[in-house]
Design brief:
By secondary structure, the protein is an alpha/beta fold. The protein folds into 2 domains: about 5-150, Rossmann fold; about 160-275, HUPs (Rossmann fold, 3-Layer(aba) Sandwich), CATH 3.40.50.620. Helices cover about 50% and strands about 20% of the residues. Strands 3-2-1-4-5-10-9-6-7-8 form a 10-stranded mixed β-sheet, sandwiched between helices. Helix 8 (about 195-210) links the parallel strand 7 and strand 8.
Amino acid sequence: MLKVILAPVDGSNYTKITEDYLIFFHKYWDSEIILQHVIDIIALEGPFFHDLSGAISMEPLVNFTGKIKELLEEQGKIVLENSCNKMREKNVPCRLFLDSGIVSEEIAGRAKIADLIIMGKRGIHAKFGKEKIGSTAEGVLRRTPASVLVVPDKYIEIKKPLLAYDGGKVAKKAMELAANFCEKLSLPLSVVTVNSSSKAEKILEEAKTYLTPFNLDVEYIPLEGSPYHEIEQIVKQEGFDLLVMGAVGHHFLIEMIIGSTALHLLRKLDIPFMLCR
């Protein structure tokens, strides 16, 4: 099911939480773990250095950027080695990749060989902004072909998962992943759909037909109203600690690459969030 898991690491607190979830997933799925650190070329070739090139001659600038690149490469190797050491302490084998480029694009590129990406909601620059989700995480979600588990800045033991299901093609993949996940861990599964009462009944009946063969304790929850508001409220009120849903909703042409509902909930909820492709 989850043979290969990719984890982008940057040495931040979110990396530490990512490592904890990697150890957790490896325990149950014996997944191959790939650790990736990306040297951001914008840090080397961005506006600062472009403006600086007009102030000093080319040769000193080349020497300066070369040294910065060396420092970033050395820092990247240390970040990877630190994460790898934590994996080794728990007998979790891993492969390391030090890449260079636009961070979200490099992660999405590596994800072509992965079944799942586990990454922090934010990263090393979290303290410099107030955004609820970092630009790298959002960029990866818009580009990657793989499912993504986005984790908060604290480790939460998963005991009460919620599947948000709308009957769409991607939601069916989310349901399969959620069912296998809960069956593997002997966890209950709650399934929520937000629609008019007649449509919600039909969608949940479809989910029940699919989930019946699994050895699961399933609760089905029909709600009416705004998917943004209703899912956010039920997560908070009922204490769900994992939300699983499709990365895009049923109306793909409206929501495009990542669904507006998914993005809204990512910004509002501080629990692990699994977005499926």
